[in-house]
Amino acid sequence: MQDIVETIVSGETSPAAFASLPVPDSYLGALVHADETAMFDGMTTRDKDPVKSIHVDRVATPEVGPDEVLVAAMASCVNYNTVWTSIFEPMPTFGFLRRYAKSVPGAEQHDRPYHVLGSDLAGVVLRVGAAVRTVKPGDRVVAHCLNVELAAPDGHDDTMLDPEQRIWGFETNYGGLAQLALVKANQLMPKPGHLTWEEAAASGLVNSTAYRQLVSRNGADMKQGDVVLIWGAAGGLGSYATQLVLNGGGIPVCVVSSPRKAELVRSMGAELVLDRSAEGFRFWSGEHTQDQSEWRRFGAAVRELTGGHDPDIVFEHPGRETFGASVYVARRGGTVVTCASTTGYEHVYDNRHLWMRLKRIVGSHFANYREAWEANRLIATGAIHPTLSTVHPLAETGRAVAEVHANRHDGKVGVLCLAPEPGLGVDDPQMRDRFLPQLTRFRN
User: Fold this and answer.
1) Which of 174, 181, 64, 61 is nearest to 121 (CA)?
2) pTM for the structure as a whole
3) What are 146-204's pLDDT values in tens digits?
4) Does the N terminus or the C terminus of the chain have fewer Cβ atoms within 10 A?
5) In degrees, to the nearest 5, what angle opens at C-alpha 119 toward C-alphas 340 and 168?
6) 3-class SS at 377?
7) How far apart are CA 183 and CA 173, in angstroms?
């Protein structure tokens, strides 16, 4: 493994040099064990600790299939699906691995008593399958997390509709929080040259997800001048949504949970910011009862910021805690676009506010291939910037995931895999210098 790292750090890019490097029979990965899925039984979600369930263990290097690529993972990032896997909610992900192994020829090796986590990646191609034409050993790449088969007609207009659509590293094995990672060739995109490894690994999942939710016609189809309410605007998903709205000529209304996070979104250019903790909004008066007076108070606070305008679009991802308020606050004919549900999947809202005011709820999940490439191009051109805040070594992956689980983070939390230190991997220092304040915003 050391030879691989030294070759990458040296700046070598020739296919022959990487093709000649021996690939080890095993590698270190951050994973959960199938025989520990009951370890948190009887505990509340809040009390389940990823530090206890995530192990950094050695696993056998998987075989590379015809359409697959083995990548030396220099860095990865934590997403909320890693939190779900680590606390075995809403179900252990080993069921996903078993179904993948049974339904797709060649996927049998994904059904293991361990699950290597991670749905983000920046690294270098080591080996390619016999049918791969798009990348070669030595290519510096980032990965998006869409894994599809496209054997059925359903996904050929929108690859997210493929009946065999899966999220790599969550519904498949051998994810990016490891020294090596196994991906399909069409998951790989060029690494933006002005970024470090850890910065390049930060954006794949969240930026693509936010792009589809907001910009794509498959989501809210945002237009210039739209008022967009963004929950968790300084978090992993929300920090990209804020940038996309600003970049697309929209007007973000950023909902945050602390003065520090309010300053972060203002530093990105957002002017309309609502600190929900300072305002003391409590949308639930009991376990089963929502307080509609709090919806009205929240709506009034939003209109005060916007000069009397209700949001054209509500960017929803917290789920149960906020969904009723989101449906209420959207303007007549407006759109609530939703994914993730990090506070709970069972959404409760008053349908009168939806039906009588002609609002829409749009479900959105990750992004199709074209959307992921378009989102990556915005990163590569400097229109959108990574929002990396902290970086952990691979050995501390459990701690990194625990930070996200407890919402103690801003932006994205990175993990160094094979990269020996932060700050490596920059191929375009001139472009980096142009955007350095934006690239380091969340770390300063």
Assistant:
1) 181
2) 0.96
3) 999 999 999 999 999 999 999 999 999 999 999 999 999 999 999 999 999 999 999 99
4) C
5) 95
6) helix
7) 9
